[in-house]
Specification:
Length: 198
């Protein structure tokens, strides 16, 4: 997207507070909504929010602003539902696992499709990577993808940070297609921007 100017708005406290509370709190939702408003105050045409844990706040913000407010994981959920009926969701945080699985379920319902969603939490992986132990994180996530997701039609990574693990696995270790949100989310944002230009 060579003609697109990208601005980054970051507030680490939104995810840190959500993780600490174990769920998305009202105060954090208000914070996210204000942050989205800041993007439009700065002249942005579209806001793409890149954290699945705060997805409910993003959807609320989308109702409050006239400009498009996009969840980074929405396009991934749509592709997962289009790809198969048994959808595996892998995460290293429960605060991301549940919102991602819920989004996939709602997308399937909107499309009138019955899907089975299998959730797998890679226990200890997040703590390992936060402690600087990327190898342990990658091993735990790799086991989740290869053992915890057997028999899936498609596998969804609830966190973009997990995508590096897929590339490191031996070819054929994961039988199902694996989807991650960043690329699909950016493609969707590009399409939305293109539609605004018409």
């Amino acid at each position: 997207m060579p003609d697109v100017r990208i601005l980054h708005f970051v507030d680490e406290s939104t995810i840190k507070n959500t993780i600490a509370a174990g769920h998305l709190q009202k105060a954090t939702m208000r914070q996210v909504i204000r942050l989205v408003g800041s993007t439009f105050d700065a002249g942005c045409d579209v806001a793409l929010v890149t954290c699945s844990s705060i997805g409910a706040a993003v959807e609320m913000a989308a109702q409050l602003y006239d400009q498009p407010v996009l969840r980074v994981d929405r396009a991934m959920a749509e592709k997962a539902v289009a790809t198969g009926n048994r959808i595996g969701v892998v995460a290293t945080l429960s605060t991301t696992l549940t919102p991602t699985a819920d989004l996939i379920g709602r997308v399937a319902e909107e499309q009138g499709k019955h899907v089975e969603i299998v959730e797998h939490l890679c226990e200890g992986a997040f703590e390992a990577v936060m402690a600087g132990d990327g190898a342990t994180h990658d091993r735990i996530v790799g086991e989740g993808l290869t053992k915890g997701m057997a028999g899936m039609d498609v596998i969804v990574l609830a966190q973009a940070s997990m995508a590096r693990v897929v590339a490191s696995l031996p070819e054929g270790a994961v039988a199902a297609p694996v989807l991650a949100s960043p690329e699909l989310g950016m493609e969707h944002a590009r399409d939305v921007l293109a539609s605004l230009a018409k």
